[in-house]
Design a protein that fits this description.
The chain has 12 helices and 13 strands. The protein has 367 residues and is of the alpha/beta class. The strands form 3 sheets. Strands 3-4-7-8-9-10-12-13 form an 8-stranded parallel beta barrel, surrounded by 4 helices. The two termini are 35 Å apart.
């Protein structure tokens, strides 16, 4: 089935990007999906937030915006799946064309603008899958025309905290005007406090879904420091590093590289990985980090982990490689851990970014 799906993926790459994506979602929803055959190596498992991840390789938000196919994607072999971004009210997003394949760079540019079917549609789908195995998170955002951003995010937490295994607050997409302004510390502290209150009201304090913040790669040194300070002051549960970039590296070859929107794929890898290491240092290793941006193989995933990521995510590489990529990354990652003498994934987290030691001589460690 994986081979057939890979062949179908190659055919769909000849279609316009959004049409191909729509057909893929429809096929998966209809049950036309491969399943990973082999169990995950024990070394890849990791426990975070009282949740056991069978492996650290996750599907990034953006693929399954409306939680239509999370179980099909778990069947690919992902250790977890993140749905969204979802906004309180349905919205169409930005005008087409708004998604571009940069074939020469194996990358994408998107200016989709949080196109989604709204909170109620996602809430109903996640409610129907309650009790099924597999970790499924939800990525929440604000409506483009909203005048109260905090209220939009509170609505997302209130609706989905009882159903999602974790929640990600997306304040870093470049495609919603003014959204990235929410990354300022003066705003973040109040926003996170409001979301923690909403989570407690929705599910109590026993074992609530962790609340994470997804940040942009295009931050100044001062902005990074402010985000780290806000994260520690508010005791948010983790950071997702990072979203797409508005930068355009000189190495890009595709004639579509100058399209407006967020760039994802290999050209984002170096910057997002450097930011990951910096956020590990700035947060003193006290927060679990999810590394995303440009992962296309096991070595890329391993570099993110050594830079401080306890989990990683990918999406763009699937467009070019197909579902067999997930199994390959896990196989390569397990081999790299064994090569370097790590019995578990947690042992490798942050290996390239040492932290200051505590008075007892031991490093702080979030993984």
């Amino acid at each position: 089935m994986t081979l057939l799906f890979d062949l179908a993926t190659a055919v769909m790459r000849r279609l316009p990007p959004e049409q191909a994506h729509h057909l893929t979602i429809c096929s998966l929803a209809a049950g036309v999906a491969p399943r990973a055959a082999a169990p995950d190596p024990a070394s890849l498992g990791i426990t975070l937030w009282n949740r056991r991840f069978p492996n650290p390789v996750g599907l990034a938000a953006g693929f399954d915006k409306n939680a239509e196919v999370p179980d099909a994607m778990l069947g690919f072999g992902f250790g977890y799946v993140e749905c969204g971004t979802v906004t309180p009210r349905p919205q169409p997003g930005n005008p087409s064309p708004r998604l571009f394949r940069l074939r020469e760079d194996r990358s994408l540019v998107n200016r989709l603008g949080f196109n989604n079917a709204g909170l109620e549609a996602m809430r109903e789908r996640l409610a129907r899958r309650r009790g099924r195995p597999g970790i499924v998170g939800a990525n929440i955002g604000k409506n483009k025309d909203s005048t109260d951003a905090v209220a939009d995010y509170v609505a997302g937490v209130a609706a989905l905290a009882p159903l999602a295994d974790y929640l990600v607050v997306n304040v870093s997409s470049p495609n919603t005007p003014g959204l990235r302004d929410l990354q300022r510390k003066s705003i973040l502290v109040d926003l996170i406090a409001a979301l923690r209150r909403a989570r407690e009201a929705a599910v109590g304090t026993g074992n609530p879904p962790p609340l994470l913040l997804k940040i942009a790669p295009d931050l100044t040194e001062a902005e990074r420091a402010e985000i780290a300070e806000a994260a520690l002051e508010t005791a948010i549960d983790g950071l997702v590093v990072s979203n797409t970039t508005v930068a355009r590296p000189a190495s890009l070859r595709s004639p579509l590289a100058r399209e407006t929107g967020g760039l994802s794929g290999p050209p984002l890898f170096a910057a997002s990985t450097a930011l990951l290491g910096e956020m590990r240092r700035l947060t003193q290793g006290r927060l679990p980090l999810i590394g995303v941006g440009g992962i296309a193989g096991g070595a890329d995933a391993y570099a993110k982990i050594r830079a401080g990521a306890s989990l990683v995510q990918l999406y763009t590489a699937l467009v070019y490689e197909g579902p067999g990529l997930v199994t390959r990354i896990k196989r390569e990652l397990a081999a790299l851990l064994a090569r370097d003498g790590f019995a578990t994934l947690a042992e490798a987290v942050g290996a390239d970014v040492p932290l200051a030691t505590t008075t007892s001589g031991r490093e702080r460690h979030a993984g």
